[in-house]
Each structure stands twice: as C-alpha cells, then as structure tokens.
Amino acid sequence: KTNVHITHVQFSSYGGRGWQDFRSEAVEIAHYINKNKHVSCDIGQIIFTNTTTMTADGAWEWVLRGITEHLAWSPRSGSKWMNAQVELESCAGVVPYIFRRKNSVNAVQWAIGLEFLLSMKDLTRVSISTDHPNGGPFTFYPLILSWLMSKTARKEMLAKVDKAAQERTTIADITRELTLSEIVQVSRASAATLLGLESKGHLGVGADADVAIYDFKVPLETLATNYRAIEKGFADARYTIKEGQIVYSNGRVIASPTGKTFRVKAQVPEDWRLQIQDAIEERFLKHYTVSLNNYAVQPEYFPREEVIETQML
C-alpha cells in the first residue's frame, strides 16, 4: 500500500539554482517512484491560460505577488489579489497568474507534467490533475489527454513554446502515447483506488455504474494522429450516467440527482484519540470565536453519506 502521496508533483520537480537555469527533475523523481511502491502522486499539469492561484500558504502568495510585479498583468497594474485569515486556521491567499508559452519557466513547467506521467511505469499510482485552479482549470483535461495520447500533439505545442522546454526537459525525446485503457486508468481508476473509493473507477460487481460514453468521430486506432478528435471527443460526452441514471445526453443535463458525501473514519489508538481531542478543545477555547460544538457539520447536510474506514498499520 502507498503511504505517501505527492500532490501536483510537477511543482516539486524543479532543478537549477534560479530562474535562469530552471530545469526539470521529473525523470529522476519518476524513476524513484517507479522503484518504490509506497509513493503515489498526481501530476499538476499547467495550462497556458489565465489562472487563479489559491492556497492556504499566505506567505507564498505574498512572494508570488512580488514575482509577478514587473509583468503587464500583475497586481501592480490594477489586477486584484488578496491575503486573508479566518479563525486563525491559516492565512489564505488568492493571486492571479497567467501561464505564457513564451515564458521560459512556464514552458518548462508545461513539459514537466507530461514528462513525469509519460515516464511512469505503474499508472495505478499516478493520476491526472491541474492543481485546479492554480495550474489551470480542470475543464482543460481533454487538452491534456490529447498531449498524453499523441506525440504529434506534443510536438506541435513544443514548436509554439519557449525553446527551454526542449533544452531543459526530455519531453521532445519521449515517443510514448497512452492508450485509451491507460487514459481510463490515470483519469479515473487510479484516483478512485488511491482514495479508497471501492465502488468507483471500475465497472465490476458492486460498482456505482458511473459511466461516460464518448463519440470520437474517427476510428479509435487513428486517435494518436487525429489528436484534435481526442480533445473534441473528451470535451463533450455523448452520455453521462451516474449510478445507472442518465444525467447528461447530447449536450443537455436531463437529471440532477443528490450525490454522495464521502467521509473518512480513521481508526486510531484510543489514547491517541483522547490526546488529540483534548488538544483540539484547548485550541478552540483559546483561539476561536465559535465553540467546538458549533464547528461540526450536522448529518442533515449530507443525506447520502458513505463512510470510508481506515486504520493505522
């Protein structure tokens, strides 16, 4: 079993001493994860578009505001940014950011996410993500899938971005193209398994019957060379089925059933639980404006609860 998960690993795969020699270390990290079964990850692919960075790391948002200050679209030019603190839990921040093709650092970041996933041997321990909304909106997943399935798509994008993407990563040398089965794995099955959602990510006995049906308009064996059909096909499912019920059909939402709320119930030693409970109660009394009893979410807010039980090994 995995006991370490690296979120949006692209942001943890940087080498070099500064912006001038900023380069990829994705292959080295992928090789480590390939050899060590206790690690899982999601890629954190960036998209060349307008994004909004949102994080509980308020100090980093202050730094990011400074990094972007010399750019035309920076907060200094009038765009809004924010740092705020709520109930002393953390200092959250929101700063706008635009990933640009001709920015050398952004170009390398774009290549790293793809380079990493395409270097992974065990796809059951990696899933697609954009660190939404920080790296880009998840609505760009169809575009990411086209890059993963088509070396032609990657080559054409490489020709449009700063040359640093070719010089400081290995993406130009990677010929691997994911199959549809592998796409199902990294976009659905892996995440379900890693989260412990036993009824998700498969169509076996006991599954929730969540199904997406796509029409790519071209023979499936030609998708790698018709990469625009990949993006277009994944962008609009012909049918979306939730728990056996058709909820989307040919461009229209036709049903909106109540979904499930998943909750983790972690089994820990009783003495640990009591120590943690005492510490939480003390902090609430000392620092919060609401009581601990008012902080909990009442059961009526999740009428369809599903509990995932886990315990320490």
What would you note in describing this structure?
This protein has 313 residues and is of the alpha/beta class. It has three domains: 4-48 and 101-200, no CATH class; 50-98, no CATH class; 261-311, no CATH class. The chain is 33% helix and 19% strand. The chain has ten helices and 14 strands. The protein has a four-stranded antiparallel beta sheet, with no helix packed on it. It has a three-stranded parallel beta sheet with strand order 1-4-8. A three-stranded antiparallel beta sheet has the order 5-7-6, with helices on one face. Helix 1 (26-35) packs parallel to helix 3, helix 4 (141-149) crosses helix 5 and helix 4 (141-149) packs antiparallel against helix 8. The radius of gyration is 22 Å and the shape is globular. The N and C termini lie close together (10 Å). The relative contact order is 0.11. The mean pLDDT is 93.
Low-confidence stretches: none
Backbone CA Rg: 22 Å
Coarse shape: globular
DSSP summary: helix tally? 10
Average pLDDT across residues?
93
Question: Could you write a compact summary of the structure shown?
Answer:
The chain is of the alpha/beta class and 313 residues long. The protein is 33% helix and 19% strand.
Keywords summarizing the entry:
four-stranded antiparallel beta sheet; globular; 313 residues
